[in-house]
Amino acid sequence: MSRKKVIAGNWKMNNDLTESVKLVNELKEKLAAESVNCDVIICPPFTSLYEINKIVEGTDIKLGAQNMYFEENGAFTGQISASMLKSVGCQYVILGHSEPRSIFGETDELINKKIKKALSAGLLPVFCVGETLEEREKNITNDVIKRQIIEGLKNVSEEELEKIIIAYEPVWAIGTGKVASPQQAEDVHAFIRNLIKEKFSAAAADRIIIQYGGSVKPENAKELLGQKDIDGALVGGACLKADSFIGIMKGC
Ligand code: PGA
């Protein structure tokens, strides 16, 4: 099966409202003049979602958020619910990113609750997994990835899995400029696809989009995206400039 590639931009904690509007307008204009062979998602900060949705509505740029909480509403100061995200036009939500895992102590169990909630609310999760440098050096990359996938996808049905994108992001490659070699990335992607085959089915494994993330740039995108099991990219730093984000899409 040929899978259409998906390029997603994770803006992280960058761009206030004015800067967000400027970047997305530039992206929209430049993309309208290009023909790119991939789906495009942008994940700006919560505070920009409502305005950005008005700009991208009706275009091929899809909107996602960078996180959410699993409860519907209530006394959860500082948190945002799935229905709030839907109400401002989000279709996607990044869950399990290594920054909330490591900085804010998000566990596999919490991430699983968020994935379940996103699915029931009709949001499409971009579910991130990845090993730290220490784990890679100890040769336990596959064990870590397996645990994250199994725990994160607990009680997720094969039908629900169709709504999920997996992003493999080696923690040591995020924001460090150190990119995984195409072969290192491909090895883990193939491992993840095989896990999906074992846990779900061959058809599910064939269908699922597995993005690579970690210092993806226009210069390295083509080779990474040329690997058999790499179906797109989750881009941090390089998505903050329209030209470099589009440069990555051109690698599809
Ligand atoms: P990076 O971030 O491209 O800046 O390494 C990727 C990510 O964290 O999603």
Q: Any overview of this molecule?
A:
By secondary structure, the protein is α/β, with parallel strands linked by helices. It has one domain: TIM Barrel. The chain has twelve helices and eight strands. An eight-stranded parallel barrel has the order 1-2-3-4-5-6-7-8, surrounded by six helices. Helix 1 packs parallel to helix 2, helix 1 crosses helix 12 and helix 11 runs parallel beside helix 12. 2-phosphoglycolic acid binds next to strand 8.
Report the order of strands and helices: EHEHEHEHHEHHHEHHEHEH
CATH topology: TIM Barrel
Helix content: 40-55%
Runs in which pLDDT lies below 50 for 5 or more consecutive residues are none
Distance linking N and C termini: 16 Å
Give the beta-strand count.
8
Can you count the helices? 12
**Biggest sheet overview:** 8 strands, parallel, barrel
Query: Which architecture does the CATH hierarchy give at level 2?
Result: Alpha-Beta Barrel
Beta-strand percent range? 15-25%
Listed once per kind, the bound small molecules are: 2-phosphoglycolic acid
Class per helix and strand makeup: alpha/beta
CATH level 4 superfamily: Aldolase class I
Q: Look at the structure and give the mean pLDDT.
A: 97
- Output the CATH class name: Alpha Beta
Number of domains: 1
Main features:
single chain; 252 residues; TIM Barrel; eight-stranded parallel barrel; globular; binds 2-phosphoglycolic acid
Write the layout of secondary structure elements.
Blueprint: E1 5-10, H1 17-32, E2 38-43, H2 46-56, E3 61-65, H3 82-87, E4 92-95, H4 98-103, H5 108-121, E5 124-129, H6 133-137, H7 141-152, H8 158-161, E6 165-168, H9 182-199, H10 202-207, E7 209-213, H11 218-225, E8 232-235, H12 242-249
Parallel strand pairs: 1-2, 1-8, 2-3, 3-4, 4-5, 5-6, 6-7, 7-8
Helix pairs in contact: 1-2, 1-12, 5-7, 7-9, 11-12
Residues 10, 169, 174-175, 213-216, 234-238 line the site of 2-phosphoglycolic acid (PGA).
